[in-house]
Amino acid sequence: MKYAIIAPVAAGTSADPAWIADYARHVEACGFESLVVVEHAVVMSHYSSVYPYASSGKMDLPDNCDIPDPLELLAFLAGQTTRLGLATGVLVLPNHHPVVLAKRLATLDRLSNGRLRVGIGMGWMKEEIEACGAPFDARGRRADEQLEVLAKLWADTSAAGIDHKGEFFEFRSAMSYPKPLRAGGVPIHVGGHTKAAARRAGRYGAGLQPLGVTGDQLAGLVELMRAEATRSGRDPEELELSLGHLVSRIDLDRSGRLAEQGADRLLLAPTPTPDLQQAMDELSACAQRLSLS
Predict the structure, then answer these.
(1) What is the pLDDT of residues 135-193, one digit of tens each?
(2) pLDDT for 267-286, tens place per residue?
(3) Which residues does 258 contact at the CB level (< 8 Å), separation at least 6?
(4) Looking at the 3D structure of the chain, how many domains does it have?
(5) DSSP 8-state code for residue 179
(6) Residue 118 forms beta bridges with which residues?
(7) Are strands 162-165 and 170-174 parallel, antiparallel or unpaired?
(8) 34: helix, coil or strand?
(9) Is the pLDDT reported for residue 95 higher than 90?
């Protein structure tokens, strides 16, 4: 089992360079696999969109909470650590143009010596996505094309570059360097709770990060992902499943039960606190329970 820590964005300290650097170094020292950071390019003070992971329909972050750009934050943390995996959970894919994103992700992957993992999602806040210039209702079709563009730009090494003509993006003779460190490109894990997310993971992703689902619904999404991978000529056994839990409650027994459900990685949410020592002590206790340190 791999254990990742979600950066405590609700503590309001993710943009404090000293705080977040010390926290990331402690995550690494404790033996956790990676640190995961979230994204909202912009948050509206009033929105009608429904947040699907809370009964209130509203996300549990203050509208004015510091939410640093995830790739800029990971680039900073890459320079503060040496082994720690660097991940997004999730990058709101509709907010990004894939040609620019291909360069940014490949650069970060190369400069971090291949430590990047990208969790992507379609986004739920219509107002945010439209403010970033993407059509909300077409974001699924657009995402499929975005993932195709990323894969093409990362794989191509021809002298002439590559052409692409799709519904949303078009270019000719494009060459994007540097390439990601790994031959298959930056691993992309698809986040979401829908059948569309599972199918997308099977066709394009390195894994699935289902949100807010358990039991038969979870099993069905995993089965759908693997079936879609097989139909796409991909090896379903190479795809990973990442599930969520709490830093304060996870232990080896709970981890084992989640492994029986197929989990390869647990994304652990810490208790948000601006007290750095308290935050690090919680990580240390968790690492001890999991026999990481």
Answers:
(1) 999 999 999 999 999 999 999 999 999 999 999 999 999 999 999 999 999 999 999 99
(2) 999 999 999 999 999 999 99
(3) 1, 243, 245, 266
(4) 1
(5) P
(6) 88, 188
(7) antiparallel
(8) strand
(9) yes
Concatenating the DSSP letter of every residue in 77-134 gives: HHTT-SS-EEEEEEEEGGGS-HHHHHHHHHHHHHHTTS-EEEEEE--S-HHHHHHTT-
Q: What is the largest CA-CA distance in the chain?
A: 55
Omega within 30 of 0 (cis) for the link into 90: yes
Contact 228, 198 (CB under 8 A): yes
Residue 167 near residue 141 (C-beta atoms within 8 A): yes
Assign 211 a pLDDT band (cuts: 50, 70, 90). confident
**CATH number of the domain residue 232 falls in:** 3.20.20.30
Contact 9, 65 (CB under 8 A): yes
C-alpha 145/C-alpha 125 separation (Å) is 21
The HSE-up count of residue 204 (CA atoms within 13 Å, CB side) is: 25
In angstroms, the Cα distances linking 28 to 22, 82, 104, 183 are 10, 8, 24, 25
Q: Which helix (H) or strand (E) holds 21?
A: helix 17-30
Provide the residue type at 131 as one letter.
A
Report which secondary-structure segment, H or E, holds 3: strand 2-6
The string of DSSP letters for 224-283 reads HHHHHHHHTT--GGG-EEEEEEETTT--HHHHHHHHHTT-SEEEEEPPP-S-HHHHHHHH
Structural domain range at position 68: 2-289
- Tell me, yes or no, if the pTM score tops 0.90: yes
Percent of the chain with pLDDT over 90: 95
Average pLDDT value for the chain:
97
Task: Give residue 293's pLDDT.
Answer: 74
pLDDT value of position 103: 98
